[in-house]
Amino acid sequence: MCEYFVKADPIQYEQRSRTIRIHGVLTSIRLENMVWDILAEMAEAEGCTTNHLIVQFHDEILAHRGEVPNFASFLRVTCMRFLRRKLTEAERGGTPKEDVAPRPRIVALGARSAS
After folding, report:
1. What's the rounded Cα separation, in Å, for the pair 113 and 107?
2. Residue 71: which CATH number?
3. Among candidate residues 31, 20, 81, 9, the one with its CA nearest the CA of residue 53
4. Is residue 114 assigned to a domain?
Protein backbone atom coordinates (compact mmCIF):
# COMPACT_ATOMS: atom_id res chain seq x y z
CA MET A 1 0.00 0.00 0.00
CA CYS A 2 2.70 2.50 0.93
CA GLU A 3 4.43 2.07 -2.42
CA TYR A 4 1.43 3.60 -4.18
CA PHE A 5 1.70 6.75 -2.06
CA VAL A 6 5.49 6.93 -1.99
CA LYS A 7 5.64 6.88 -5.78
CA ALA A 8 3.40 9.94 -6.10
CA ASP A 9 4.81 12.60 -8.39
CA PRO A 10 6.58 15.12 -6.13
CA ILE A 11 5.08 17.94 -8.18
CA GLN A 12 1.67 16.99 -6.75
CA TYR A 13 2.71 17.71 -3.17
CA GLU A 14 5.00 20.62 -3.96
CA GLN A 15 3.47 23.78 -2.56
CA ARG A 16 2.64 26.90 -4.54
CA SER A 17 1.46 30.26 -3.25
CA ARG A 18 -1.21 32.31 -4.94
CA THR A 19 -2.37 35.78 -4.13
CA ILE A 20 -6.14 36.08 -3.85
CA ARG A 21 -8.12 39.29 -3.45
CA ILE A 22 -10.86 38.82 -0.87
CA HIS A 23 -13.08 41.90 -0.74
CA GLY A 24 -10.26 44.21 -1.72
CA VAL A 25 -7.68 42.66 0.60
CA LEU A 26 -4.81 40.73 -0.97
CA THR A 27 -3.94 37.52 0.84
CA SER A 28 -1.48 34.79 -0.02
CA ILE A 29 -2.57 31.15 0.18
CA ARG A 30 0.01 28.37 0.04
CA LEU A 31 -1.33 24.96 -0.99
CA GLU A 32 -0.06 21.82 -2.64
CA ASN A 33 -0.36 21.67 -6.44
CA MET A 34 -2.82 18.80 -6.19
CA VAL A 35 -5.09 20.89 -3.94
CA TRP A 36 -4.98 23.75 -6.45
CA ASP A 37 -5.92 21.26 -9.19
CA ILE A 38 -8.91 19.96 -7.20
CA LEU A 39 -10.06 23.52 -6.43
CA ALA A 40 -9.87 24.27 -10.17
CA GLU A 41 -12.00 21.17 -10.87
CA MET A 42 -14.54 22.29 -8.28
CA ALA A 43 -14.62 25.81 -9.73
CA GLU A 44 -15.15 24.45 -13.24
CA ALA A 45 -18.07 22.36 -11.99
CA GLU A 46 -19.53 25.54 -10.48
CA GLY A 47 -18.93 27.58 -13.64
CA CYS A 48 -16.64 30.08 -11.94
CA THR A 49 -12.97 30.81 -11.46
CA THR A 50 -10.86 29.23 -8.73
CA ASN A 51 -10.42 32.64 -7.12
CA HIS A 52 -14.18 33.24 -7.08
CA LEU A 53 -14.78 29.82 -5.52
CA ILE A 54 -12.17 30.50 -2.83
CA VAL A 55 -13.79 33.85 -2.00
CA GLN A 56 -17.19 32.13 -1.84
CA PHE A 57 -15.77 29.50 0.56
CA HIS A 58 -14.21 32.26 2.67
CA ASP A 59 -17.50 34.16 2.88
CA GLU A 60 -19.50 31.05 3.75
CA ILE A 61 -17.16 29.84 6.49
CA LEU A 62 -17.00 33.36 7.91
CA ALA A 63 -20.79 33.61 7.94
CA HIS A 64 -21.13 30.17 9.51
CA ARG A 65 -18.30 30.30 12.08
CA GLY A 66 -17.69 34.03 12.52
CA GLU A 67 -13.97 33.61 11.83
CA VAL A 68 -11.59 31.84 9.49
CA PRO A 69 -8.73 30.63 11.72
CA ASN A 70 -6.92 28.26 9.32
CA PHE A 71 -8.22 28.84 5.82
CA ALA A 72 -5.55 26.81 4.00
CA SER A 73 -6.38 23.72 6.06
CA PHE A 74 -10.07 24.37 5.51
CA LEU A 75 -9.45 24.36 1.73
CA ARG A 76 -7.50 21.09 1.95
CA VAL A 77 -10.29 19.43 3.93
CA THR A 78 -12.89 20.84 1.53
CA CYS A 79 -11.03 19.19 -1.36
CA MET A 80 -10.91 15.86 0.47
CA ARG A 81 -14.63 16.07 1.22
CA PHE A 82 -15.31 16.89 -2.45
CA LEU A 83 -13.35 13.81 -3.57
CA ARG A 84 -15.01 11.59 -0.96
CA ARG A 85 -18.45 12.77 -2.11
CA LYS A 86 -17.54 12.02 -5.74
CA LEU A 87 -16.39 8.53 -4.74
CA THR A 88 -19.57 7.88 -2.76
CA GLU A 89 -21.69 9.03 -5.69
CA ALA A 90 -19.76 6.80 -8.08
CA GLU A 91 -20.23 3.82 -5.75
CA ARG A 92 -23.98 4.52 -5.69
CA GLY A 93 -24.15 4.64 -9.45
CA GLY A 94 -23.77 8.38 -9.81
CA THR A 95 -26.95 9.43 -8.01
CA PRO A 96 -26.82 10.24 -4.30
CA LYS A 97 -29.80 8.79 -2.38
CA GLU A 98 -30.76 12.08 -0.80
CA ASP A 99 -30.86 14.00 -4.10
CA VAL A 100 -34.23 14.06 -5.79
CA ALA A 101 -33.70 17.34 -7.64
CA PRO A 102 -30.83 18.46 -9.86
CA ARG A 103 -27.50 18.53 -8.04
CA PRO A 104 -27.13 21.61 -5.80
CA ARG A 105 -24.16 23.93 -6.00
CA ILE A 106 -21.12 23.12 -3.90
CA VAL A 107 -21.05 24.99 -0.61
CA ALA A 108 -18.11 25.30 1.71
CA LEU A 109 -19.41 23.29 4.63
CA GLY A 110 -20.72 20.36 2.61
CA ALA A 111 -24.31 21.42 3.27
CA ARG A 112 -26.83 21.73 0.51
CA SER A 113 -27.77 25.18 -0.73
CA ALA A 114 -31.37 26.29 -0.92
CA SER A 115 -31.16 27.08 -4.63
Report:
1. 7
2. 1.10.3990.20
3. 20
4. no
